[in-house]
Amino acid sequence: MSLIERAIFAAAHEIQRPGFTGMYQSLVKNQWRSREALQNDQNRQLRRMVSFCYNHVPFYKQRFKENNLTPFDIRTVKDLEKVPPTTKDDLLKNKDSTFPQGVSVRYYARTTGGTTGNPLAYRISREDRFLSGALLYRGWSGGGYRLGDRVLTLAGSSLIEDVKSATKMRLTELTRNIRFASAFKMSSRNLLKYVNMMNSWKPSFLRGYPSALYEFARFIEDHDLSIPEVSAILVTSEKLYPEVRETLQRVFRTRVFDGYGANDGGIGAYEYECGNMHIDTERSILEVVDEHDKQVASGEGHVLATSLVNCAMPVIRYDMGDQVIASDEFCNCGRGSPLLKEVIGRTVSILVMPDGSRVHGWFFQHVFWSVGEQVRKYRVVQETKDRIEIDIVPGSDFSEHTIERIRELVSYTCSNWILNFHIVESIPKTKSGKSIYIESKVKLR
Q: Is 77 helix (H, G, I), strand (E, B) or coil?
C-alpha cells in the first residue's frame, strides 16, 4: 500500500463529500457508545423522519390516516408496531406518491432485485449514499481494514462492457483502491487471470459473494496454485455456510468476516473481530418481527427496515424479504449495537455454462435490473447446462421487446443457453415457504 494510493483515496472521498473522513472517524467512535445511548439516538432520528414522511410523502400520510395515526403516536422504535409493514408491491403500485413532495432532495437512482426476485427502482439521497459508504468501511474495519487498503472484489459487473461502464469502473477502482473481478464470467481462463491479479497487485483484502469466492478457492486448490496472503476475507450478499467459511479460511489462510445489508432499506450488519455481527444503528432501524409483525428480541423472524437518513425515498417498516435470527445479548467486545445471530434466507445458486464455466446466480438479478419495472417478479431455474426456464410476472410496461432485451443481455455472457420463458400470474414459494428465485439443478462437481 503506497502513500500515493491512500492520498488519492482520501482526496477523492473529500471532494465527493467534504468531511467524509471526519464522518467516518465519528462513526468509528460511535460504535463504542452504550446500547441505551444508541437507542436514544435512533428514537430521536425516527421522530424526525416520521414527521418528514407525514408532511412530505403522500403514501405515508395516507397510510397513517388509514390507521388513525399521527406522528405523535410514533415516539420510539417499539411504537413502529402500530404501523403496517410496507411491501415491495406497495412501492411499485404507489411509485409517484412514495417520493417526497414540496422539498428538494438530491438523490441517486438505484435498482434492486432484493432477495425476492421482485425488481424495484428506488432513490437514495446524497447524504445517505455517503453514510452508507462510511458504514461499509467501518464494517470492514472489523477485519482490520484501514481507509485506502487494497481490496480485490469478486462479485457482479456490468452486463455490457462498453466504454462508459469501463471508464466508470476504472474511476471507481482508482478512487477506492479496489479491483473488480467478475463473478459472472468464472471460466478457468478468467479464474487464472484473477489468481495472477492477486499475485501482481497483492491486495490486502478479498471481498465478494461467498459462493463465488468458494468457486475461486476450489479452483486454486484443485490446480495447486500459489497466492499471496491477505489480511481477511469480507463476504456479502448471501448466506455464509460453515463449510464455505472453512474452505475459504483454509485456502486463503486467513479469517472470514460475514456481512449483511441492503441499500433499498438502508440496513447493514457486519461481523467484527469478536465473532459477532453488529447491526448498524445510524442509518436505518432494523426490526426482526414474527408472523404478526411484532418485534422479536431474540429468535427467528423476518426483517423490516425504516429509514433514518434517506429523505429521497424514505421507507417505514419496509419488508426486506429476508429471514434472520436476532439476539438480545450484549457483546463482550464493548460495542453497544444489537446483534444479528444469523442470516437464514439469502441463498443464490451458481449457474453453469455448456462449456463448464461458472456464472454467479446474481447475474440474472443484474439482467432484470436492466429491464426495470417491465417485470414485476421472476424466477430462474437452470434445469441442465444448456437449458434455463424463466417464469415472469409481467409489469406495467411489459412487452415482447422485454423478452428480446433479456435474451440480448444474457447473450453477452452466454449465447449458448436455451432460454424458455413462461408468463405467469404469480410465483409460489417452495414447500418450505422460501422464496427461491434463482436456482440451479446442475451439479457443480
A: helix
Q: What is the pLDDT of residue 177?
A: 94
pLDDT > 90 in the chain, percent: 67
Alpha carbon separation from 288 to 4, 44, 191 (Å, rounded): 44, 20, 38
Q: CA-to-CA distance for 197 and 153, rounded, in angstroms?
A: 11
What pLDDT sits at residue 168? 78
CATH number of the domain at 245, please: 3.40.50.12780
Q: Which helix (H) or strand (E) is 369 found in, with range?
A: helix 362-371
- Pick from 319, 268, 335, 327: nearest CA to 134: 268
Are 269 and 389 contained in the same domain? no
Helices (H), 17-162: 20-30, 35-56, 58-66, 88-93, 126-140
266 and 174 part of one domain: yes
Number of domains comprising the chain? 2
The pTM assigned to this predicted structure is 0.85
308 and 376 inside one domain:
no
Does residue 311 lie within any of the structural domains? yes
| Contact present, 242 and 235 (Cβ < 8 Å) | no
Residue 445 included in any domain: no
DSSP string, 397-445: T--HHHHHHHHHHHHTT-SSPEEEEEE-S--PPPTTS----EEE-S---
pLDDT in tens, 364-403: 888 888 888 789 889 999 999 999 999 999 988 899 899 9
pLDDT at 117: 60
pLDDT, residue 161, reads 55
Segment 131-139 shows an average pLDDT of 97
Amino acid, res. 388: I
Task: Count the alpha carbons within 13 Å of 406 in the hemisphere toward its beta carbon.
Answer: 27
DSSP 233: E
Say if residue 334 is in the same domain as residue 358: no
Range of the domain at 317: 1-347
Decide the pairing of beta strands 267-271 and 277-279: antiparallel
